[in-house]
């Protein structure tokens, strides 16, 4: 039986993970004013960041089509799909429609689509968990049950240093954004249980915000010893390394760091950091 893991390009990886994690990514398209970017290996993230910074207009993202997913489903017998939160994008519905199309043509295939209720490294951890269970030779139904349980317990947090994209896209009002910029307020955001985004605290100053984030993680009451912490950063490696050092005290099973690709960069913006566990 041939297994296949498919994810959209919100799933952020580093070269080490690309070597060991057998996941195929389907790219988003990102439009910034009159410029279009395809979120694949050829994307220049710094060019995307510059375009977003220079443009007064909101970015527009186009999720993979059902046809994009269906093409990848042809290549395996058991296909497991991971998408960005259904609350943030139409990708989950595209992947489900592709499943229906595929099973009509190939009724003996197995296809399951996981709504990550997250993004970025949340999708990375879910893909890693799927591969772990495939290697354990669990049945398809066991893999689905265990991974859905993992998703239910996963935590996602992020801090955006630059709020301009959130303001342009209407997630933060211009007045709130102006006040935040003047007072140097950094919202600490998290993914909700249903996969939406909410601000949980507003902290004055970047260093204080990241210090408070470390404390918030410690207050979750999670058993960290059996969890991997994944940190993605948008052009902010030192912040990610500092976070890793500060979070070692919780004795995570492992801590990995990746760069954000196009879509995650568009969400968190230049200097932002996302983490999941």
TrEMBL record:
Example of a GO MF term: lipid binding
Query: Which key words are in the record?
Result: Lipid-binding
| A Pfam family the protein falls into | DegV
Domain of life from the UniProt record: Bacteria
Write down the InterPro entries for this protein, in alphabetical order: DegV (IPR003797), DegV_C (IPR043168), DegV_domain_contain (IPR050270)
Name the UniProt record assigns to this protein: DegV family protein
Organism the protein comes from? Paratissierella segnis
Q: What is the lineage of its organism?
A: Bacteria, Bacillati, Bacillota, Tissierellia, Tissierellales
